[in-house]
Amino acid sequence: MTSQRRQIPKIDYGIILTLMLMMIASLVIIYSAQTTGQYKQNFVFQQVFWYTLGSAVAVFVMQFDSEQLRKISWYLYGIGLFMLIVLFLAPDNIDFTRKVNGAQSWFFIPKVGAIQPSEFMKVFTILVLARIATDHHVKFIHKTTKTDFWLLLKLGFAIAVPVLFILKQPDLGTSLVFLAIFLGMVLVSGITWKLLVPIFSGVTLLGGTVLYIAIEMPQYLKYFGVKPYQFKRIYSWLDPYTYQSNEGFQLVKSLQAIGSGMTSGKGFGNREVYMPESHSDFIFSTLGEEFGFIGGSIVISLFFLLIYQITRVGLDTKNPFYSYICVGVISMITFHVFQNIGMTIGLLPITGIPLPFISYGGSSLLSNMLAIGIIMSIRYHFKKYMFSSND
To answer: What transmembrane ranges does the database entry give (predicted)?
Structure first.
């Protein structure tokens, strides 16, 4: 019996293939969605540009190894936080930082487009949380409840600072993504369940209480910090047809579009339901109407495949810093997919979160490609050998 050593390729071509399929799906759906007449821009051309730029960013980030990523993590976090502070302090009556749909979340750069700092801050925060967790475990080899609580406080503070500025924009949807990242990384951080069980139970109880009050006693929601426009979103989610002339319009149209697509859809370009923002936040509605359950299932399967591929990278590496990054990216993508598709079919309230790699959007796509570039760098910089035996 002989043993043959085979080195796994440093470039994960499986992830590249999955992204290429997502790009094709994105361009096809956006091409059809932009025919609604709501906007005059060529979103397909712009999406190609952002995919090209995002690919260049991913290739560039691949060159950074673990130690380099650790060193720049706090600098990137500081840059992202600085941009959020600038948005917070900037007046909303100038074109560079004007409000859009009631939120001051973007920098508007001539001939480039809108840049949303909170999208990039998600990836920067993942890097910082990964560094905090790894540095903590190096410093505190012998774990106690006290050291675990100290780690939880550090992780919580790192996530709370950007979230506070994002909530002020206001952008509740993106804030929830940060919460999902935090919860995902806390679960694998090694913190004792003596701390996690009460915390998660409390969060679950609070969420259930808020939902109960929203249904039975909505007038008391103001004590939980819920804004008037958020009241309307909750009402339109619980009973969209009653509010279909205003706040419930998008959800009703989305349900009609997806429902009318049935199993195989109406065919490419054969949409009948007018859907606002059908190229961005509600792109899954366009997909459901034109390609039906089959088309929607294929796109969802691509996300499952991508998450599996990132999980495999995280399990293969023996570097804790890398593993934490993988968990953070998985948490971010999973929540985005769950929330976006859930809001288009009425399972969750509308929050304005895009569908990763599919929805049109420069900042969203660039930040996701940045995250994938980091995942690709993990595969690129760690060595693993497989042993196969032959008789």
So the answer is: 12-31, 43-62, 74-94, 106-129, 149-166, 172-188, 195-215, 291-309, 321-338, 358-378
Gap between the Cα atoms of 119 and 80, Å rounded: 9
357 contacts 337 by C-beta, under 8 angstroms: no
How far is residue 343's CA from residue 351's CA, in Å, rounded to a whole number? 8
pLDDT per residue as tens digits for the range 149-193: 999 999 999 999 999 999 888 888 899 999 999 999 999 988 888
Q: Which two tokens stand for residue 273?
A: 């339901």
| Whole-angstrom distance, CA of residue 32 vs CA of residue 35 | 6
Using DSSP bridges, classify how beta strands 107-109 and 113-115 pair: parallel, antiparallel or unpaired: antiparallel
HEC sequence for 118-182: HHHHHHHHHHHHHHHHHHHHHHCCCCCHHHHHHHHHHHHHHHHHHHHHHHCCCCHHHHHHHHHHH
Task: Tell me the angle at which helices 145-167 and 117-139 cross, rounded to the nearest 10 degrees.
Answer: 170
Q: Which amino acid is at 225?
A: G
Q: Which amino acid is at 385?
A: Y
Taking the model in full, what pTM does it have?
0.89
